[in-house]
Design a protein that fits this description.
This protein is an all-alpha fold. It has one domain: Na+/H+ antiporter like fold (Up-down Bundle). 79% of the residues lie in helices and 0% in strands. It contains 13 helices and no strands. Helix 4 runs parallel beside helix 7, helix 5 crosses helix 13 and helix 10 packs parallel to helix 13. 48% of the residues are buried.
Length: 305
């Protein structure tokens, strides 16, 4: 079974991401974006943080700390990808501006068609083998085929089959989570998720990286005098990366070969999965404090324009 998973790792990762994006698309309509773009200040601030601040923080970590090649590439990869469906879900649970969260996810997802290869090239090239060439066209194709196209198809489903769209979205996301479990089991069975191989220091530095994103994504929107609900949406969007896409890009960059060790590729996989674990653990606190912030205000708040 483990050998079977390794032989079809790219297909498994593709299916997982496609299901997740179909589910997100089926939960969206064009009306969700209208209110956000009437007050564009919040989406400009949030999207700028996604595309500029997060890669900048990753660059500081890669430059400052003595990271292994796999972990450094993994952090660069987490910085290069957009937010994912979990940011929208947790924003809604925390009482944040869900439409803003969805809009930022969409903008970042569209933008990553161009920005992901560029950011990876700037942050991770020095850790690649001398003869390595960044597969920009391959990454762009994957983003289009497994992120943008399923997202659009999900929205079309919601438009024409609205009565079942919510159920369809729920089951797609549940199925994507089940495939993630398959990825974890397959990777662990192949010995690629060994914490001792990467050290507690790398795990602590990765945790420090995500904490830096949490703090900055709470402080900077306040400097722009954004409303409490918009701060929550930006905080979730910056913190919760689309690790589904990270897994697919990892498979594109470092495809697993049964019986052939790949410490760099395994380090990238380990980093992406550990980041995903960290963000799920932090979600409980971020949701709690988000709801606490909103309870201090009377009625819904909107970002100032």
């Amino acid at each position: 079974m483990i050998d079977l998973y390794l032989r079809h790792e790219y297909l498994v990762a593709s299916i997982q991401l496609t299901l997740a994006m179909l589910g997100m698309g089926a939960a969206l309509t064009l009306r969700d974006f209208a209110e956000v773009f009437r007050f564009p200040k919040s989406i400009v601030v949030g999207s700028s943080m996604q595309l500029v601040l997060v890669p900048l923080v990753a660059w500081v970590f890669v430059l400052t700390f003595n990271l292994g090649a796999g972990v450094a590439i993994g952090i660069a990869l987490c910085a290069a990808i957009p937010g994912g469906t979990t940011s929208n879900i947790f924003t809604h649970i925390a009482g944040g501006n869900t439409a803003l969260s969805v809009s930022m996810t969409t903008v970042a997802t569209l933008g990553c068609l161009v920005t992901t290869p560029i950011i990876l090239g700037l942050l991770a090239t020095q850790y690649m083998p001398a003869n390595f060439a960044m597969p920009t066209a391959h990454i762009a194709r994957d983003v289009f085929m497994f992120v943008l196209l399923p997202l659009a198809l999900g929205m079309i489903y919601a438009q024409y089959l609205s009565t079942s769209a919510q159920r369809f979205s729920k089951w797609c996301i549940r199925a994507s989570i089940a495939v993630i479990a398959l990825i974890v089991i397959g990777s662990a069975g192949a010995g690629r998720l060994d914490m001792s191989a990467y050290g507690a220091d790398n795990a602590r530095l990765l945790f420090l990286f995500i904490i830096a994103l949490v703090v900055l994504s709470l402080l900077i929107p306040r400097l722009f005098r954004l409303g409490s609900r918009d701060v929550t949406a930006i905080n979730m969007e910056v913190t919760f990366r689309n690790t589904n896409l990270a897994l697919l890009i990892k498979v594109s960059l470092f495809p697993a070969v049964a019986g052939v060790p790949d410490p760099v590729g395994d380090g990238v996989l380990f980093t992406a999965l550990l980041y995903g674990g960290y963000q799920l653990l932090l979600s409980v606190l971020l949701i709690y404090f988000g709801r606490l912030r909103h309870s201090r205000h009377q009625g819904p708040m909107r970002g100032l324009s």
